[in-house]
């Protein structure tokens, strides 16, 4: 099967700055693919390379089997939802959504009918006569989505699509985007610096750092088996432990990731001794901050388990397989 | 310091403000009054009588029409050149980053900061150096130097307020460069260009100094008026022409002011 997007050793250098440096990447058709990384890691440049706003300085890009180098953005069957939405302020919502069809020469009746249908798809029917300035951030986001989808792209690119929305709206849009992607079957490629967003929405995640992909895999793989320390650090929530700490805790002298929910309380005297520093109530669970082996660790306890008093001495244990060893390199 | 809302200004201040405004605008009013006087050799106050005959006399003077024609021609072509170059330059400076960008921005604005006489002398010596004969085109070139600035300033301000991702969004949706310019760029900078163009036209229309240095035998309308003042006959004709010039330059400037003011609502970014 032809890949939706394929990067072969792709680089994009801006003078001395290596924004993207030798990236290899394969995105399957119909996949919901996330590019995750801190700002400046090259993920947005990769998105712009797919859209055609940037040309690679090295390597080869294919979109559905066709060479992408030298093809301008307006000749690619790829559409983008911009971070700032980039709605045209001088056009009303219907004309905004119909813009792509208008420049392709689709007649007025057809393009307005399809634009209306696209607005319905994003749950904004009847908003056509309004101006972008009259809509809320969440509504503008939906218009931007409709404006891209009305062109029936083979790949939809989303640049930090939820970054400007408040938490509740963001969670709602996450679910809507996911069900929309499943219903339409279009390949979605989205860029985010929010690991929670990437893990919860994507089928596959590529973690970027310093212009390259440090790990690529399903959200579960990224979360449970980080290959390098950078991934464990960036994906967050896990305890990242230095070699000397691991040794004191009775493991190998290598960097390791230990998930908070894999750590259990043990009867005193049996496991690793620790001291409780803090306890926070999270609803479905309690999170402890403890000190063990000279390092601070998070421990997740099920809500039905008694929370030890702050300052008390406890003992911790975990399965051998739960300590996930990884490379130090970023 | 700002006084409180509803607080009334003292009478003295009102009189002072009124006197200031009178000082500024009474002379203009006098020009209008003298356009109707019956005395043709000197400006006598009060005018001995009023007549509208000078409008007919002006209408029938071929030299007036010639000068007016030349001024309109110069202003139109200079404005057209300024619109083209000013917009291109503004687009380059505001949309891209390149070495020497700030220097170019400064050099473009410089002609309006320089006294007209410097620009005039510089152009005149440059034209003679290259053996370019003085003609309508040298006048147009001279005017274009400061007309470009006005268009550039208006366009660059609007470009900066227009989100750069709009152009990318248009290309992304399938519009090529020309379609993007027509459907996205032009509607967003249109009013700024109209305003800049009107200001440029008005500036060119009443320009004297640069014209004196760059013109040959031709006289534009302001130059013609200057020459006319020395002649003793049919003086009110000059006043009639002056009235027309005031109207012709004042209306576009007023329109430009309203257009750029409304532009605030038109040219918001995509956010």
Tell me about this structure:
- The complex is a heterodimer of chains A (330) and B (271).
- Chain A is an alpha+beta fold.
- Chain A is 28% helix and 31% strand.
- Chain A has two domains: 228 residues, P-loop containing nucleotide triphosphate hydrolases (Rossmann fold); 69 residues, OB fold (Dihydrolipoamide Acetyltransferase, E2P), CATH 2.40.50.
- Chain A contains nine helices and 18 strands.
- In chain A, helix 2 crosses helix 3 and helix 2 packs parallel to helix 4.
- The longest helix of chain A is centred in the middle third of the chain and has 18 residues.
- Chain A starts with a strand and ends in a 5-residue tail after the last strand.
- Chain B has one domain: MetI-like (MetI-like fold, Orthogonal Bundle), CATH 1.10.3720.10.
- Chain B is built from eleven helices and no strands.
- The longest helix of chain B is centred in the first third of the chain and has 34 residues.
- At the A-B interface, strand 6 and helix 2 of A face helix 7 and helix 8 of B.
- Chain B: It is found in: Cell membrane.
- Chain B: InterPro entries: Bact_Polyamine_Transport, MetI-like, MetI-like_sf.
- Chain B: It is a multi-pass membrane protein.
Note the topology.
The complex is a heterodimer of chains A (330) and B (271).
Chain A: E1 5-14, E2 17-27, E3 32-36, H1 43-51, E4 58-63, E5 66-67, E6 78-81, H2 93-103, H3 108-121, H4 137-149, E7 155-159, H5 167-184, E8 187-192, H6 195-201, E9 204-209, E10 212-217, H7 219-224, H8 229-235, E11 239-241, H9 243-248, E12 256-258, E13 264-266, E14 272-281, E15 285-292, E16 295-302, E17 313-317, E18 324-325
Parallel strand pairs in A: 3-8, 3-9, 6-7, 7-8
Antiparallel strand pairs in A: 1-2, 1-4, 4-5, 9-10, 11-12, 12-18, 13-17, 14-15, 14-17, 15-16
Chain B: H1 11-34, H2 53-59, H3 62-95, H4 101-113, H5 116-129, H6 136-161, H7 165-172, H8 177-205, H9 209-214, H10 221-230, H11 236-266
Helix pairs in contact in B: 1-11, 2-11, 3-6, 3-8, 3-10, 4-6, 6-8, 7-8, 8-11
């Amino acid at each position: 099967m032809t890949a939706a997007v394929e990067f072969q050793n792709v680089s994009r250098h801006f003078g001395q700055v290596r924004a993207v440096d030798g990236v290899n990447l394969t995105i399957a058709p119909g996949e919901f693919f996330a590019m995750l990384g801190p700002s400046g890691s090259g993920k947005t440049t990769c998105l712009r390379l797919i859209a055609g706003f940037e040309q690679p300085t090295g390597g080869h890009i294919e979109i559905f089997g066709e060479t992408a180098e030298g093809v301008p953005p307006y000749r690619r069957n790829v559409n983008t939802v911009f971070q700032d939405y980039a709605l045209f302020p001088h056009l009303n919502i219907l004309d905004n959504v119909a813009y792509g069809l208008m420049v392709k020469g689709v007649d007025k009746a057809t393009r307005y009918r399809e634009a209306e249908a696209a607005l319905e798809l994003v749950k904004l029917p009847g908003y056509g006569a309004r101006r972008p300035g009259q809509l809320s951030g969440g509504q503008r986001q939906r218009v931007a989505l409709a404006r891209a989808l009305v062109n029936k792209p083979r790949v939809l690119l989303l640049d930090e699509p939820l970054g400007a929305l408040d938490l509740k709206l963001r969670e709602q849009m996450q679910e809507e985007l996911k069900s929309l992607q499943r219903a339409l079957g279009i390949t979605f490629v989205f860029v985010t610096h929010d690991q929670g967003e990437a893990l919860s929405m994507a089928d596959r995640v590529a973690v970027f750092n310093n212009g390259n992909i440090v790990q690529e895999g399903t959200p579960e793989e990224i979360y449970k088996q980080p290959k390098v320390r950078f991934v464990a650090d960036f994906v967050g929530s896990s305890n990242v432990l230095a070699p000397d700490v691991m040794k004191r805790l009775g493991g190998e002298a290598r960097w390791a990731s230990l998930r908070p929910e894999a750590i259990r309380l043990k009867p005193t005297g049996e496991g690793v001794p620790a001291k409780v520093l803090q306890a926070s109530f999270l609803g479905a669970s309690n999170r402890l901050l403890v000190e063990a082996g000279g390092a601070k660790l998070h421990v997740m306890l099920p809500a039905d388990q008694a929370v030890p008093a702050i300052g008390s001495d406890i003992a911790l244990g975990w399965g051998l397989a739960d300590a996930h060893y990884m490379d130090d390199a970023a | 310091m700002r006084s409180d809302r509803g607080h009334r200004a003292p009478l003295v201040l009102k009189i002072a403000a009124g006197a200031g405004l009178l000082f500024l605008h009474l002379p203009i009013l006098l020009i209008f009054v003298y356009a109707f006087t019956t005395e043709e050799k000197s400006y006598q106050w009060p005018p001995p009588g009023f007549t509208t005959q000078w409008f007919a006399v002006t209408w029938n003077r071929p030299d007036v029409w010639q000068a007016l024609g030349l001024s309109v021609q110069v202003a139109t072509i200079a404005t057209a050149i300024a619109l083209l170059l000013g917009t291109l330059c503004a687009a380059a400076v505001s949309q891209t980053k390149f070495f020497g960008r700030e220097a170019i921005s400064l050099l473009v604005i410089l002609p309006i900061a320089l006294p007209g006489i410097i620009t005039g002398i510089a152009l005149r010596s440059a034209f003679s150096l290259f053996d370019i004969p003085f003609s309508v085109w040298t006048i147009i070139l001279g005017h274009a130097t400061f007309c470009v600035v006005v268009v550039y300033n208006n366009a660059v301000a609007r470009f900066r307020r227009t989100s750069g991702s709009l152009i990318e969004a248009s290309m992304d949706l399938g519009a090529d460069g020309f379609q993007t310019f027509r459907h996205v760029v032009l509607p967003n900078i249109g009013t700024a260009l109209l305003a800049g163009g009107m200001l440029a036209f008005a500036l060119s229309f009443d320009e004297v100094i640069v014209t004196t240095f760059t013109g040959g035998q031709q006289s534009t309308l302001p130059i013609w008026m200057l020459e006319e003042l020395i002649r003793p006959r049919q003086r009110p004709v000059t006043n009639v022409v002056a009235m027309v010039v005031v109207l012709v330059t004042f209306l576009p400037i007023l329109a430009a002011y309203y257009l750029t003011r409304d532009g605030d609502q038109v040219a918001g970014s995509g956010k």
